[in-house]
Write a structure and sequence with these properties.
Elements (H helix, E strand, L loop, with lengths): L1 E3 L15 H17 L1 H12 L10 H8 L4 H19 L6 E4 L5 E8 L2 E5 L8 H14 L3 E6 L9 H10 L3 E4 L2 H10 L9 E3 L4 H10 L4 E2 L7 E6 L5 H12 L6 E6 L2 H15 L5 H11 L1 E4 L3 H11 L3 E5 L4 H4 L7 E4 L5 H6 L25 E8 L2 H17 L3 H12 L2
Cofactor: Zn(2+)
EC number: 1.1.1.23
Family: Belongs to the histidinol dehydrogenase family.
Length: 422
């Protein structure tokens, strides 16, 4: 892991290039799904995943069997995490409101859930029951009527039992064994089996990301997610073992993941680099994590914490950890980060699984203008206007003046004619 002693350079991150070949492949897959529906889904799954599926929908018997393949401790952990995540997201709920003026005009905003949400749960390098919870719970809290889940099957045509249990605990009934760009296409266009949805959420590989980008406008999406990333700010009090473990926790996701540390201590930088090398030796996903650390990992040594904060705000990390003596003193200075983990006990892994905040976060610097997935992503708002006769008579001339200035006489007439009725 390289150590950089130059605070004037920009932090490095993996950029998800939109290669023409991959984009062309995605467009071709989407067209097949749009034109041929289920027939394309079966054919693409057989060709791309090597699985010949008898049907797309996960059966009730498969869900029941899933419970027999895991320990009770796992089911209990899912239930606990569900309660924590639901409690956190309940606090995000918005209410409709109306305001009545003395003249009788009523202005307001109606808050309503979207009708159908499609959630994508990855299943390539690993299974992610936690992603079921993080996608599904805010949709349920928002009041979404129909949740459709898609996730890739394994080589035997089955869905990971942990993923099925997580979905079942949330009450999600429509679970389909389909992944990749074809799954995004199915949710966006609808097929004979899979209903068209209003919004697609959830991370995936580059094909999923590009497919979501392509169908945006026909449906809404949460984001075009890039590789996972973590940034740790550490001072001389940081524990090198814990800092190294947190860096590796993101590096093991994907070879394209980015693990970065900014520290004010040259000694801590050296100790963390040594500790990263040591911890990688016995890691089950060592090959993936080593590739990430080798290609994208870096430790920056800076003169002070203010410099570290400035670099962090420019970088806008997905995950930010504050392993410093007084972490709460930095929070007010942090402007851009998807999630902030404060202090030694608040490892990023707690946020991934259990604490309550959502782990679907803005990546690639988009934390400068976007937020974690939440209840707001599954609602829409309608403005409400009930104008009184008194306010119409009072304001008609001003409204017409504005319309005429924009050379929209029809707009002006619509107001003037109403006033002339009296």
């Amino acid at each position: 892991m390289k150590i950089i002693r130059d605070s004037q350079v920009n932090l490095e991150r993996t950029i998800l290039d939109e290669h023409d070949e991959q984009y062309d492949a995605v467009k071709g897959i989407l067209k097949q799904v749009k034109d041929n529906g289920d027939r394309a889904l079966y054919a693409l799954t057989e060709r791309l995943d090597g699985v010949k599926l008898p049907d797309l929908l996960v059966s009730k018997s498969e869900i029941i069997e899933a419970y027999g393949t895991v320990e009770n401790s796992f089911v209990n952990a899912i239930k606990q995490a569900t309660a924590n995540i639901r409690s956190f997201h309940e606090k995000q709920k918005r209410q409709s409101w109306m305001d009545t003026s003395p003249n009788g005009t009523i202005l307001g905003q109606l808050v309503r859930p979207i009708s159908k949400a499609g959630i994508y749960v990855p299943g390539g390098r690993a299974a992610y029951p936690s992603s079921v919870l993080m996608n599904g719970i805010p949709a349920l809290v928002a009041g979404v009527e129909q949740i459709v889940m898609v996730t890739p099957p394994d080589k035997h045509g089955m869905v990971n039992p942990g993923v099925l249990i997580a979905a079942n605990e949330l009450g999600i009934k429509q679970i389909y064994k389909i992944g990749g760009a074809q799954a995004v296409g199915a949710l966006a266009y609808g097929t004979e089996t899979i209903p068209k949805v209003d919004k697609i959420t959830g991370p995936g590989n580059i094909y999923v990301a590009l497919a979501k980008k392509e169908v945006y406008g026909l449906v809404d999406i949460d984001s075009v997610a890039g590789p996972s990333e973590i940034l740790v700010i550490a001072d001389e009090t940081a524990n090198p073992q814990l800092a190294a473990a947190d860096l590796i926790s993101q590096a093991e996701h994907d070879p394209l993941s980015t693990a970065t540390m900014i520290t004010t201590s040259d000694q801590i930088a050296k100790q963390v680099r040594t500790e990263v090398t040591r911890q990688l030796q016995n890691l089950p996903r060592r090959e993936i994590a080593e590739a990430s650390i080798e290609n994208n990992g870096a430790i920056y040594v800076v003169p002070d914490l203010d410099t570290a904060v400035q670099m962090t705000n420019d970088y806008a990390p997905e995950h930010l950890e504050l392993l410093v003596k007084e972490p709460f003193e930095l929070i007010g200075k942090i402007k851009n980060a998807g999630a902030i983990f404060v202090g030694e006990n608040s490892t990023e892994a707690i946020g991934d699984y259990f604490a309550g905040p959502n782990h679907i976060l803005p990546t690639g610097g988009t934390a400068k203008f976007s937020s974690p997935l939440g209840v707001d992503d599954f609602i829409k708002k309608s403005s409400l206007i009930s104008y009184s006769k008194a306010d119409l008579d009072k304001n008609a001339e001003s409204i017409a003046t504005l319309a005429q200035f924009e050379q929209l006489q029809g707009h002006a007439n619509a107001v003037i004619f109403r006033k002339q009725r009296s």
